[in-house]
Design goal:
Distance between the termini: 27 Å
CATH architecture of the largest domain: 2-Layer Sandwich
Order of helices and strands: EHHEEHEEHEHHEEHEEEEEEEEEEE
Oligomer: single chain
CATH topology of the largest domain: Alpha-Beta Plaits
Number of strands: 19
Strand content: 35-45%
Mean pLDDT: 86
Structural class: alpha+beta
CATH superfamily of the largest domain: Nucleotide cyclase, GGDEF domain
Length: about 300
């Protein structure tokens, strides 16, 4: 598993009051509302050049190269949330920290991750809370919107440190006009770069920032497990490159890609951009109804 250290802004954003929502409106409606919120939080993260690390129930974790990007994304999320009627009784809590973290293929680790999670828990509904490390490197226009919020012991530290609230409600800055685009426009932006995968009853909606996506028979290295003897332990992966999803085979038996009812394209230690829709056979020929046929749609 590859890993490297890098300075990043880490953002946690979660829907406040979701537990009460399930009791109030029932499981199906509550889940639909939460899914909608997670979707636009993810979309706005990508619009602001962030990387979605993972979703955890009603919460997303993201990383950004710059603190300004993270704060602008947080503002856009809050401005969007108050325009969503179904979220009016909920709200979103956001916490951001900045510093050196350890980045792996699928996750991020380190003290700054813990700091961001800590201040996200402190934030109330519709608040953005920042650590001192964020405020120290913010551009001046954003720093002016920061107010000292509290002095706390962040987990693992013995001395108290200042945390700040980013006042987003009254910013009214012209340069943020594009950050509150209608949600259907944001959705189109994300859908354009989304790859859908279906294997039996499992559906995966893959975004560019979630690649490379590993597929194979090894449960420790594969994000999509293929439990058939014809598949290799590390059979193939999908990566996003220059606006396209590319299937890269590195298996023993090869990969068969079926598109538009034509004869399959056979790959062995080769790669192929995935376009339109079709299905994939890992190590064996398949039909559209074969249990181990991996269906895709770009």
């Amino acid at each position: 598993m590859s890993q490297h250290s890098q300075h990043q802004a880490i953002m946690f954003a979660d829907v406040s009051g979701s537990s009460a929502l399930y009791k109030r409106v029932g499981n199906e409606e509550a889940k639909a509302i939460i899914d909608e919120a997670v979707h636009f939080m993810t979309a706005l993260t990508i619009v602001h050049e962030g990387t979605l690390v993972k979703t955890i129930g009603d919460e997303i974790m993201a990383r950004f190269n710059e603190v300004n990007q993270a704060c602008e994304a947080a503002i856009a999320i809050q401005q969007r949330s108050i325009k969503e009627p179904r979220l009016k009784d909920l709200g979103i809590r956001i916490g951001i920290a900045y510093g050196e973290v350890l980045i792996t293929t699928n996750d991020v680790f380190g003290d700054r991750v813990n700091d961001a999670a800590c201040v996200a828990r402190i934030a109330r509904a519709n608040q953005i809370v920042l650590t001192q490390s964020v405020v120290d490197v913010l551009e001046s226009t954003l720093r002016r919107d920061c107010q000292m919020f509290d002095r706390i012991n962040i987990k693992g530290e013995t001395e108290k440190t200042l945390i700040y609230r980013l006042e987003w409600e009254h910013t009214g800055k012209d340069n943020r006009a594009t950050m509150v685009m209608p949600i259907h426009d944001v959705t189109r932006f994300v859908d354009k770069f989304q790859l859908g995968l279906v294997l039996n009853d499992r559906t995966i909606e893959l975004l560019p920032e979630q690649t490379p996506f590993q597929i194979g028979r090894d449960p420790h290295k594969s994000q999509l497990l293929i439990e058939t003897e014809f598949a290799s332990r590390e059979h193939c992966h999908i990566e996003f490159r220059r606006g396209k999803y590319v299937l890269v085979d590195h298996s023993t038996n090869g990969t068969y890609v079926y598109v538009d009812e034509q004869a399959p394209i056979y790959l062995r230690r080769e790669e192929l951009p995935l376009q339109g829709q079709g299905y994939i056979g890992l190590g064996q020929t398949v039909t559209a109804t074969t249990p181990w046929a991996l269906h895709f749609k770009v």
